[in-house]
Specification:
Elements: E1 2-6, H1 11-22, E2 26-31, E3 45-48, H2 54-63, E4 67-72, H3 79-84, H4 86-106, E5 111-117, E6 128-129, H5 140-158, E7 162-168, E8 170-172, H6 190-198, E9 205-208, E10 220-221, E11 223-225, H7 226-238, H8 240-247, E12 251-256, E13 262-263, H9 264-275, E14 281-284, E15 295-296, H10 299-305, H11 313-331
Parallel strand pairs: 1-2, 1-4, 2-3, 4-5, 5-7, 6-15, 7-12, 8-11, 9-14
Antiparallel strand pairs: 10-13
Helix pairs in contact: 1-7, 4-5, 6-11, 9-11
Length: 334
């Protein structure tokens, strides 16, 4: 299959492109390079531009008339920034995606796999969430993801579009071959922050929020290895029509996680075990827009995608540490 991957120069996008290739498929990358590094694209078919550029989309489909599906990952993703600059998030994540979906439908490229977020879920007493559980997106970033879910569901009901919406939990780790990983010089990503503290690039790792209603007061997450997440996209693309038939609807929402809840203190303990020494820790209030968190009920992904995670949190931590040593070679900076 040939698959258009928007945001394919990014952390998850580039890893997913590689997973598609390893499964025998061909990714075509569309990315503005606003944040993703060009080096992550490698020698894949690549179009630098905006997802809302209809003329560019028409050129891509003209160049690749055998496109079977689109994986839409391109988005702004930093929660505190979304609180400070909501206009940019609603413009880029919502308004531009509307143009993308409408043009894909007009071009007859009607299979869309959308990257959504587990940050949409309302807090539950036991923290395990199913796809039907109540939502309460706490930040402009999360609200853009919820809006796009609704847009896709409405457009799928009214047009020829079909949509599978993957609610990501918390991707961590790096490509197993260390060809890509977290690229921000100062990642907001929790594991990237831990690696920086461990390597002495920060004075300490800061736990933001220690009074949450969890077993140890810190936020709870479901940390999934990015390679497992990439594999889930491959399964969703390969089984796309089967999923839509199975749910008997033009769209479906599927959690993608491990099914295990890990607090921030749990994560620190795992990191120190893999790293082999303690990491300096500081504590601070929650950041604007931070959620207490949740972990995935994964029954639906197992049933519809015939997929489950294969890599552990320790595997993810080890790959993140290895990437921390490798990334200067690839990206040109620590």
């Amino acid at each position: 299959m040939k698959v258009l991957v928007t945001g394919g120069a990014g952390y998850i996008g580039s890893t997913t492109a590689k997973a598609l290739e390893e499964a025998g498929h061909t990714p075509v990358i569309l990315d503005s390079l606003l944040t993703g590094p060009r080096v992550f694209v490698k020698d894949r078919a690549f179009y630098e531009g905006d997802i809302a550029d209809r003329e560019l989309l028409r050129r891509i489909v003209s160049d690749h008339p055998d496109l079977d599906a689109t994986i839409h990952m391109a988005a702004r993703i930093v929660v505190p920034e979304s609180v400070e600059k909501p206009y940019l998030y609603y413009r880029d994540n919502v308004a531009k995606s509307l143009e993308l979906f409408d043009e894909l439908n007009a071009l007859g490229r009607t299979r869309v796999l959308f990257s959504s977020s587990a940050s949409l879920y309302a807090t539950k007493d036991d923290f395990e969430v199913t796809e039907e559980d109540p939502l309460d997106p706490p930040s402009p970033y999360a609200r853009t993801k919820r809006m796009m879910e609704q847009v896709l569901q409405d457009m799928a009901a009214a047009t020829d579009l079909s949509a599978i919406i993957l609610r990501y939990f918390n991707p961590v780790g790096s490509d197993p071959d260390l060809e890509s990983g977290i690229y921000a010089k100062e990642p907001s990503h929790v594991l990237g922050q831990l690696v920086m503290a461990a390597r002495g690039q920060k004075d300490a790792f800061t736990i933001t929020g220690v009074d949450h209603p969890t077993r140890d007061g810190t936020g709870i997450r479901d940390y999934i290895h990015v390679w497992d997440l990439a594999r889930a996209h491959v399964r969703a693309i390969e089984r796309f029509d089967d999923v839509i038939t199975a749910v008997d609807a033009p769209s479906s929402i599927i959690n993608v996680g491990t099914g295990e809840g890990v607090t921030v203190r749990d994560l620190v303990a795992s990191f120190e075990r893999v790293f082999g020494q303690e990491v300096p820790i500081a504590e601070a209030p929650p950041r604007p827009g931070d959620a207490v968190g949740a972990f995935a009920n994964v029954d639906k992904s197992r049933e519809l995608l015939d997929w489950r995670t294969e890599l552990s949190l320790d595997d993810a931590i080890a790959s993140a540490l290895a990437w921390g040593e490798k990334r200067q070679e690839i990206l040109g900076y620590e």
